[in-house]
Specification:
215 residues; mainly alpha; Arc Repressor Mutant, subunit A; Tetracycline Repressor, domain 2; 2 domains; 73% helix; 0% strand
Length: 215
């Protein structure tokens, strides 16, 4: 193989990879806004400036596209849930998980698309989204630990606080653009300050997200 031919093959592969990523971004926006039933493949192709045939060359069907986002969502979601450190105080781990999830919901359209598609799939099967059930279990256990260490108020049950935080995580995304609280992380931090008993540990948030303000 000549060097010129090799460079041509590499350039073609790089163009295909860039087109693949553009299709993913456009599809993520489409699914996040319209859900599976409302998503339109022609609209996706038009947004990228390509034909629907070109889209099919990368993804053979609408199902294949949706499966791509659900799979990536599962991977990212459980990666976030596992970002607890055994040596850290419970409140630090709670903030790490909740702020991380809110931040990802606001900043990652592919994550939002995967969440919506996974939720729709679970609803169509008459079940609760497994990822949300797992989040509930993790939050509840961390809240139990935080109350035992007197980091969180004991005026309410761990289950009730866990339910509040789950609602906050998803509610911050849907209401955030309208309430002036940036991408929702500030709102999450304010609630942790309300629930903490004064023994507040160091806050841990993603490097590119706003930090919680300690008072």
């Amino acid at each position: 193989m000549t060097e010129r031919l090799r460079r041509g093959i590499v350039a073609k592969q790089e163009r295909a990879a860039r087109t693949h990523e553009r299709f993913l971004d456009a599809s993520a926006t489409e699914f996040a806004h319209h859900g599976y039933a409302g998503a339109n493949l022609q609209r996706i192709a038009t947004h990228v400036g390509m034909t629907k045939g070109a889209l099919y060359a990368h993804f053979p069907s609408k199902d294949a596209l949706a499966s791509e986002f659900i799979s990536r969502f599962d991977e990212m979601w459980y990666g976030l849930l596992q970002e607890t450190c055994d040596g850290d105080p419970p409140l630090t781990n709670l903030r790490r998980i909740t702020v991380g999830l809110v931040h990802r919901l606001h900043m990652d359209v592919r994550f939002r698309a995967g969440l919506r598609l996974a939720h729709e799939e679970a609803c169509s099967q008459g079940r609760t989204l497994t990822a949300v059930s797992d989040l509930s279990d993790i939050l509840t256990q961390l809240i139990v630990d935080g109350q035992a260490r007197k980091q969180l108020t004991t005026a309410h049950s761990p289950e009730l606080i866990s339910s509040l935080i789950r609602s906050l995580i998803f509610g911050a995304y849907y209401t955030g653009p309208f309430n002036g609280l940036g991408n929702g992380t500030e709102q999450v931090c304010q609630v942790w300050q309300l629930l903490s008993s004064g023994a507040v540990s160091e806050t841990v948030v993603p490097e590119d997200s706003p930090a919680c303000n300690e008072h």
